[in-house]
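Design a sequence for this backbone.
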């Protein structure tokens, strides 16, 4: 690496970390890649880019606008109705904090949060892990990959109604 190289530290969503590592490796290895990346980022002839992360007000205004359109569609009766709404499960311990909802297609969470997410005990999650039904990222659960496996097996929140948790 050149003596005048700079180190850059950034905070990323977990699903972007590998991509940024690959871009950094390519920038180190291929001198022409920087120019191609610069042309891509300049946006010549491309679709508009989303607002930068620090433009929170603009992002919130856009989200509020989208929500207003959805509410108007619901009020007019033109919104599509969900085909299979998720069943709301009441936690057995009303004081228990519900698990944070994972962002679709992303995310890792602790085994305890994953147990709350599926409305099962921590012991059930340990059994799933031992049986190889969970995809782990270190000591955390890869939510998307693990949910795909549990969905195929009809386990956790994907179990048929009336069936006992496994």
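Sequence:
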């Amino acid at each position: 690496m050149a003596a005048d190289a700079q180190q850059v530290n950034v905070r990323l969503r977990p699903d972007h970390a590998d991509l940024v590592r690959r871009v950094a490796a390519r920038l180190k290895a291929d001198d022409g890649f920087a120019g191609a990346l610069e042309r891509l980022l300049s946006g010549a002839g491309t679709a508009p880019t989303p607002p930068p992360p620090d433009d929170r007000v603009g992002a919130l205004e856009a989200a509020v606008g989208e929500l207003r359109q959805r509410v108007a569609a619901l009020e007019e009766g033109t919104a599509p109705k969900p085909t299979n709404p998720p069943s709301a499960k009441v936690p057995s311990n009303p004081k228990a904090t519900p698990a944070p909802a994972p962002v679709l297609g992303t995310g890792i969470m602790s085994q305890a949060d994953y147990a709350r997410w599926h409305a099962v005990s921590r012991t059930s999650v340990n059994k799933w892990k031992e049986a190889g039904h969970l995809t782990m990222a270190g000591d955390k659960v890869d939510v998307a990959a693990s949910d795909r496996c549990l969905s195929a097996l009809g386990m956790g929140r994907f179990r048929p109604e009336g069936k006992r948790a496994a």
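The beta strands are 108-109, 136-137, 140-142.
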